[in-house]
Design brief:
This protein is mainly alpha-helical. The protein has 10 helices and no strands. It has 2 domains: 149 residues, Up-down Bundle (Ferritin), CATH 1.20.1260; 159 residues, no CATH class.
């Protein structure tokens, strides 16, 4: 790997050409990845791609006049000092903020490269070109703001924000909420059945942990295998599965941990309070993200939870 200080003028120009080509392809990937859900933002990145192509053509013309047609292959990973980028094709689903943050990082890094490259160039024409490109990269963010104002009118912006919220609900909230509800409610019966059957906190804790982890594994696989997300837009199945499985386990462990308290009566009282908090939290999430009236959400969740809770107590006490 070379240091930036060891590069010749020819190599600096060759690297600049490669950087502009890579940036234009990244912006093209952003546009492609966002066009279905966020078409107006996709147009913004398409406009930025066109600008990067123009930069590359100007660099190539300067290189051709000075060094000829052959351009040595010099990439960012061949030179020390560049930030390692995560491949765009790995970022799925591609979110608005992720794309905008990466674009901002790219612009700043490229600007710094041109500023340093101009200082190390003796040729007046090349130095002037690099200074100009550094200034254009500096204003690239302002250009993006102009494109955003042009493309993202209030109605369009509202539509894209609604689309982003819908994707978040589909890909994160729904599987997480399903897991949290299942973990919080379904594990009530075995935990409290074991507690009232044995009147031993440790036995209830072991049963609760087994039920929580087992339910988490089961729900995680069930969610991951339900659909691949290609038609429903629900995102990568294994990401949904992990979210669902973790939230299921969390929901069960919440009212299991109090049974680490040795005093059975105190442990049971704390566990009941935790159950009430869990059911209240689930009702709030359903109200906020699933557009369910809070009273209706609370009634649905609390009634189901209380029935399972009573079932566990009755079975354990019999």
């Amino acid at each position: 790997m070379r240091t930036f200080e060891s590069l010749t003028e020819r190599e600096i120009l060759a690297l600049a050409i490669t950087l502009e080509e890579e940036d234009s392809r990244v912006y093209a990937d952003f546009a492609e990845g966002l066009k279905e859900s966020f078409p107006a933002t996709a147009q913004i990145f398409e406009g930025m791609r066109v600008e990067e192509v123009g930069h590359r053509e100007r660099l190539f013309e300067a290189y051709r006049q000075r060094f000829g047609e052959h351009i040595p292959l010099l990439r960012r990973e061949d030179v020390k000092g560049f930030v390692k980028r995560r491949p765009v094709w790995l970022i799925r689903p591609l979110g608005l903020e992720v794309a905008r943050r990466q674009a901002s990082t790219m612009e700043e890094e490229t600007r710094r490269f041109y500023e340093q490259a101009a200082k190390r160039t003796q040729d007046l024409g090349i130095r002037q070109l690099l200074d100009t490109l550094a200034e254009e990269e500096r204003s690239h963010e302002h250009r993006a703001d102009e494109l955003e104002k042009e493309k993202l009118q209030p109605a369009t912006r509202e539509q894209e924000e609604h689309a982003a919220r819908r994707l978040f609900v589909l890909q994160v909230v729904q599987p997480g909420l399903a897991g949290l509800m299942d973990g919080s409610v379904s594990t009530l019966a075995p935990v409290f059945a074991a507690a009232f059957a044995t009147h031993k906190s440790w036995d209830a804790f072991l049963v609760g942990m087994a039920a929580s982890i087992g339910a988490g594994i089961s729900m995680g696989f069930a969610e991951a295998l339900s659909d691949d997300g290609s038609l429903t837009g629900r995102g990568h199945p294994w990401i949904r599965g992990v979210i669902c499985g973790l939230m299921t386990t969390l929901g069960g462990i919440g009212h299991t941990l109090p049974f680490l308290i040795k005093n059975f009566g105190m442990a049971t009282s704390v566990a009941v309070v935790v159950v009430a908090i869990e059911l209240f939290a689930i009702s709030l999430i359903r109200h906020k993200y699933m557009d369910t009236p809070f009273l209706a959400a609370a009634l649905q969740v609390v009634v189901g939870g209380v029935l399972v809770f009573i079932t566990g107590i009755l079975i354990g006490s019999s």
